[in-house]
Amino acid sequence: MQWSVEDDVYSETHTFQEMLNKVRGQPYMTFVGVPGSGKSATIHHISLILQGEGYEIIPIIDIRKIENYIDSNNHQVFVIDDVVGVLGLQKQKLETLVDYEKIVSDPSRRTKVLMSCREAVFNECYESFFTNEENIIKLCSSENALTGDDKKAILQKHGLNKDLLSPTLLGEASAMFPLLCKLYSREEKFRNNIERFFTCPARMHFKRIR
Length: 210
Hints:
Elements: H1 2-6, H2 16-25, E1 28-33, H3 39-52, E2 56-59, H4 66-69, E3 76-80, H5 91-99, H6 101-104, E4 111-118, H7 119-122, E5 136-138, H8 148-157, H9 167-172, H10 177-186, H11 194-199
Parallel strand pairs: 1-4, 1-5, 2-3, 3-4
């Protein structure tokens, strides 16, 4: 229910359909990006789409819990945020995930596993099935990076004027743009310096973000 409420402000980007098609074609997929780039929002949005097609959504924190809930007779989508660590790589989590490769990557099951991972954490991972290129979607890659039209659509989803930012500022805006729009729409204190807010968010001393 909480995901459905938050999904009201989710905007599908120019490559969203391609990302969705990749998810449909693979047993597992990891969404990689910087904090605030929309990793969790994207896998939650896709999960809700799959739910509408008959999948049961099962959010878990520990990959080992998949054994408790997996049902080969039903369509399920397991969702794991920050799967191998939040602020840095937790090697034990990665090692445990690798131990569950057979279950996670089994194409014969009716199960899908959607995971999110911060870019800096992903870059620390050693090579394994988790780093397979065909099972990774990098939200900040040149292919998937937000276009000006994507950013305008996100602004509108948050009840903001699509022309709030000049074309130059749109182009220079941080990859954290989805989160920045959310914060800007909710808290007036962030509106004192719009240029700095959207281009240099690291200086704004945000709390922990995903």
